[in-house]
Amino acid sequence: MQNPATATLASEFAELPATASHGPLRIEYRWVNEAAANAPIAVFLHEGLGSIAMWRDWPQALCERLGMRGLVYSRPGYGLSTPRAHDVKWPVDFMTSQARDILPALLDALDIGAQERKRMWVIGHSDGGSIALLYAAQHPDELAGAIAIAPHVFVEDISVESIAQTKQLYETTDLRSKLARYHADVDSAFYGWNDIWLNPAFREWRIVDELAAIRQPLLAVQGHDDNYGTMAQIDTIGERVPHAQLVKLDACGHSPHRDAPDALNDAIAAFVAKQR
Q1: Parallel, antiparallel, or unpaired: how do β-strands 12-16 and 25-32 relate?
Q2: How many domains does the chain have?
Q3: Is 157 part of any domain?
Q4: Which of 22, 143, 212, 239 pairs with 83 at a CA distance of 20 to 30 A?
Q5: Closest Cα to residue 106, out of 125, 127, 86, 120?
């Protein structure tokens, strides 16, 4: 069976120049549903241990249903993108940097201009959901809408406890070998995510105040059985963004696109249809 982390034929790479916030980066990306060449773009932002390969076929299926073209990419440190040097720790505001610096630079590198960005949707899961919220807050006039799936807007005990348990599994079971199928440098991906979430300084991280700047249509989705966050996350989004629509899914954990794909896709399709 082919290793997804080394299956490069379907992926392309964008070179991002060095800036004050990061060195030169090579970003793995892929277009899905390319037949919809003139349709709005949906940008998919993966979870804290995710990559292009870990999305599997969900972005393609969703884009076909929405009639959109999808851009899927692996953030630095993940998949086949530039790995994190093992002595580098992500800063507490690493998600803000992804929304402020990395995603705009990738859009520039792919010649996605202002008019296309105004029609663009960002769809993020977990850490990627938080990045989607931050991008929407930072670019209130350059986006058609945002969808945040199991996002984090502050740190809860349940998140830290589950992430600590995941570290134990990574170091004592076959979890590392399983994740290695999706990342060229699996330790770069795992410890970049795990170390910052378990850093005591990260307990003070929150993006609640930033949410009020979001003006675009916003859908926030959470599963009732999520072991990485409670309904307080999207309830807080609803309080700070009154126009946001909240969807709470039964029999669903932290990954609705895997746990309850039909219910998730129905909710997203209905929400997007209302904005057109």
Answers
A1: antiparallel
A2: 1
A3: yes
A4: 143
A5: 120
- Of residues 90, 123, 71, the one with CA closest to residue 21: 90
Q: What b-and-e string marks burial along 227-250, b requiring 16 or more CB atoms within 10 Å of the CB?
A: ebbeeebbebbbebbeebbebebe
| Domain carrying residue 183 | 9-275
pLDDT tens-digit series, residues 45-89:
999 999 999 999 999 999 999 999 999 999 999 999 999 999 999
| C-alpha triplet 190, 196, 198: angle, nearest 5° | 95
User: What average pLDDT does range 217-227 have in this prediction?
Assistant: 98
Distance CA 6, CA 173 (A): 23
Q: Is the pTM of this model over 0.90?
A: yes
Q: Which amino acid is at 258?
A: R
Provide φ and ψ at 106, rounded to 5°: -65, -45
Instruction: List all residues 6 or more positions away from 265 whose beta carbon is below 8 Å from its beta carbon.
Output: 61, 62, 65
pLDDT band at 19 (very low <50, low <70, confident <90, very high): confident
Distance (Å, rounded) from C-alpha 264 to C-alpha 253? 12
What's the rounded Cα separation, in Å, for the pair 140 and 198? Answer: 32
CATH number at residue 193: 3.40.50.1820
* Residue 3 within any structural domain of the chain: no
In this prediction, residues 185-206 reach a mean pLDDT of: 98
Domain assignment of residue 147, yes or no? yes
Q: List Cβ neighbours of 212 (8 Å cut-off, separation of 6 or more).
A: 137, 240, 241
- Residue 35: CB atoms within 10 A of its CB come to 9
Q: What is the pLDDT of residue 1?
A: 36
Distance CA 51, CA 136 (A): 21
Round to whole Å and give the CA distance between 213 and 236. Answer: 14
Encode pLDDT of 259-276 as tens digits: 999 999 999 999 999 998
2 assigned to some structural domain: no
